[in-house]
Structures are given as structure tokens and as C-alpha cells.
Amino acid sequence: MKLVSIIPAFNEEETIARVVHHVPKFITGIDVIEVLVINDGSTDTTAARAKEAGSTVYTHTPNRGLSYTFKLGVELALAHGADIIVNMDADMQHDPNDIPQLVAPLLRGEAEISIGVRKIDADKSMYWGNRYGNKIGNWVLGKLTGQKLLDASSGFRAFTREVALNVHLRSNHTYTHEMLIQALFKGFPLSQIPITSQRRTAGKSKLIKTLPSHIRESLKIILRTVVTYKPFKTFLVTGTCICLFGVLLGTRYLWLVTHQSPGHIPSLLLSSVLLLIGFITVVLGVLADLLATNRKIEEEMLYQLKKQGTYRNYTKCL
């Protein structure tokens, strides 16, 4: 059993060596532990310090962002023969000593993906907007996936090789929500493990430039993923709601004409338009569901390519 820890890093020279050093060397049930640092075009000494700390370093330039770096890290871990992949931040906000607890449900066969749950309510250093935004995000994703989620935005997560082969990320902003939604929609069991998190002591977040922009991008990712994997249900619910409003307006028009006075043509027109839009939306759902067959074929091809190790060729930059 091989565990590969992937650490996406961009200008984290002050903390990267400590993160690498603290990754456990031995875990019960794991035969081999390897650390891969994915250097996202850093302009400081991140790559050199990660190598000195004993990790394998892959570098790409220019800076491509967290989502691309995570996807590359997963592909590299697969190419290195990982049975379990652990992703963690390079800024020491995640404690590498929590890795054994995080992978334990996977080793016992109880889960295929394990999310590290931060103590958000107890973390007074977290900006209030992030805290409540996280709670709202957990609630929304929980409703969409049918599971109670405690920290859907946590990047500290472990998952099996099968999850890595079956999840195909498309977002350029962040991977956390899209990966989790895909994994749950595809039926992979989830475990949520309390972890220790600490405040960033060096540098600043490269992902969240402003909270409104992060919320906007996250909502786009969630909506796109849900529509991609549950198109018929999404369009059916939307179209039904629109038709319902149309029916209510039509009923109002009939009542007014019958009990009060003729006229009220705007209500009739709006009712007709809403019914038409609702019907078209449902039809679009049927068509989108048919087109989803092509996506399933495409994902099966990607799965086989990843499984055979022929998806990409890699160049290791030390």
C-alpha cells in the first residue's frame, strides 16, 4: 500500500520545508510514503527548500493557480503508483501529524474519500465572512448531495486511487467543491475527520483575493457541476417552478375575469410566457440528460487512460 502526499505550493519558502519534514515517515497499514511538492511557478526558493527537505519536486511555469496545480498533483501521484493520495496546504495551516487519522477510514474500507474538518467556530482568527460563508456553503452542498457536510471547503483531504481515477476536474478556480460533488454523486462513501488547523504565520492566501469574488466563483463551480451531473433533475425542478408561477398567474387572471371585471391582459400574457419558458426548460433538461451520455463516455475514456498511465507525459524538475 503506497501513500503519496501532494503539496501544491506557490511562494511558500518560509513554511514548505516544515510541512515536508512533518509528514509522517511511518503509518500502520502503509508500506511506502512519498511526498510530492507541485511548485506552481514560484519566484522564491520554494522548490529548492522542498527538495532539501526530502520531497520530490515538480515545477511548472508560469503560475497556473491552485486548481491546475492540484489536478497535476493528482495525476503525478497516480503516475507514481499511489493507492491513497493526501492533499494538504503548503502554508502549515494543516498539521501533517493528522494524516494517520485522516487515512484511517480509507484503510479500514469505510470510506473512499476523507475530509479534514477544521474547528471553524473555535477559530477566532478566521475572518467572520469566511466563517459564515463556509457554513452556508456546507448547507448548500449538503442539500445538493444529500449528506451533512461539515467542512466542504477544506483542502486537507485523503482519497483512494479509484476516486482519483473517476473524478475529472474542470474548474480553474478551486477544486474543493467540484471534487467533493463529483465524488458523492458517483457514490463514493465519505468520512469527515476532525483535524487541527492553525493560522497562517507567513505569506498570504493566493486563492481568496476578495471574499465576494471567491463566493461568486464558488457558486459558478457548484452550479456548473450540478447541472453537468444532474441535468434532468436540475432543469425539471427549475421548469416546474416556473410553470407553477405561470399556473398561479393564470388562475389569478381567471378569477379576476370571472368575479370582477374583464381585462387584466398583462397577467394572461405573463402567465403564458412563464408556462412556455417552463416547458422549454423541461425540454432542455431532457436534451441535456441525453447529452450527458456523451460525457459519461468521455469520462470512461479518461478513466481508462488514467488507469493505463497514458494520460500525460511528465518531466520532473528538481
Please sum up the structure shown.
The protein has helices at 16-22, 46-52, 66-79, 99-107, 128-145, 161-166, 176-185, 211-229, 231-259, 265-308; strands at 2-9, 32-40, 56-60, 84-87, 113-117, 157-160, 190-194. 37% of the residues are buried.
Looking at CATH, the homologous superfamily of the largest domain is: Spore Coat Polysaccharide Biosynthesis Protein SpsA, Chain A
Going by helix content, strand content and strand pairing, the class is alpha/beta
Largest sheet entry = 7 strands, mixed
CATH top-level class of the largest domain:
Alpha Beta
Largest beta sheet: strand ordering: 3-2-1-4-6-5-7
Q: What is the total tally of β strands?
A: 7
CATH architecture tag of the largest domain: Alpha-Beta Complex
Radius of gyration: 24 Å
CATH topology call of the largest domain: Spore Coat Polysaccharide Biosynthesis Protein SpsA, Chain A
Share of residues in strands:
5-15%
The outline comes out as elongated
**Helicity range:** 40-55%
Q: In angstroms, what separates the terminal alpha carbons?
A: 26 Å
How many individual helices? 10
Low-confidence runs of at least 5 consecutive residues: 314-318
Mean pLDDT: 84
- Helix/strand order, N-terminal first: EHEHEHEHEHEHHEHHH
